[in-house]
Design goal:
The protein is mostly helical and 157 residues long. It has a domain of 77 residues: DNA polymerase, domain 1, CATH 1.10.150.510. The protein has 6 helices and no strands. α3 runs antiparallel to α4 and α3 runs parallel beside α5. The structure holds 2-acetamido-2-deoxy-beta-D-glucopyranose (3 copies).
Length: 157
């Protein structure tokens, strides 16, 4: 995969994971909807999306499987499928289950795209989480600092 496309893809995936993390935060305050999410049903729907994606990918020559340009629309359909199906059965999207299913799909299709070591395959999930959370916490810390400073300047003014 060419370096720019690869970087864009990584950003895309990281974006999904960061969203998932933020939704998890939200879900603690909106528990009732989460309670109606049937996880075995959700897993089944994810498998259905995965089967669609496998069929779509079968139409693409395997030598292009690492080239984002060739499979971005199929990949987009796949994530859209997991999103609409999750929401239809009252599950949040992204959710940890869909997320781990998407990572499983990545391992299946993109495990050989490791010229520069694929970020979501090589480090264990904990490392990945840390890689994502560090910038998120830095951002939150910066926001906190800005708020704190503006309060202080209010006091001083
Ligand atoms: C990916 O596919 C596009 C479109 O066919 C092509 O222009 C590009 O050179 C390919 N990139 C790589 C790294 O093969
Ligand atoms: C969850 O979904 C599965 C599969 O669709 C179904 O068999 C099961 O009865 C559901 N459980 C609840 C609590 O609705
Ligand atoms: C990855 O490479 C291995 C060994 O060459 C091969 O058996 C496997 O089918 C490949 N997987 C994909 C998804 O291309």
């Amino acid at each position: 995969m060419d370096a720019n496309a690869f970087a864009a893809f990584q950003l895309f995936v990281i974006g999904i994971l960061v969203n998932a993390w933020m939704m998890e935060g939200l879900s603690t305050t909106e528990a009732p909807r989460m309670a109606t999410c049937n996880e075995s049903h959700l897993l089944w729907e994810m498998e259905v999306c995965g089967e669609f994606f496998k069929k779509d990918m079968a139409h693409i020559e395997p030598q292009y499987w690492c080239n984002l340009t060739h499979f971005i629309s199929e990949y987009h359909l796949f994530t859209l499928c997991t999103e609409t199906k999750s929401q239809r059965i009252n599950c949040y999207w992204p959710n940890p289950l869909a997320q781990s299913y998407i990572i499983r799909i990545h391992k299946h299709f993109f495990s050989n795209c490791t010229m520069e070591h694929v970020l979501w395959v090589d480090p264990p999930d904990e490392t990945l989480t840390i890689l994502i959370l560090v910038p998120v916490f830095l951002t939150l810390a910066m926001i906190g600092l800005v708020v704190w400073c503006s309060k202080r300047s209010d006091l001083l003014a």
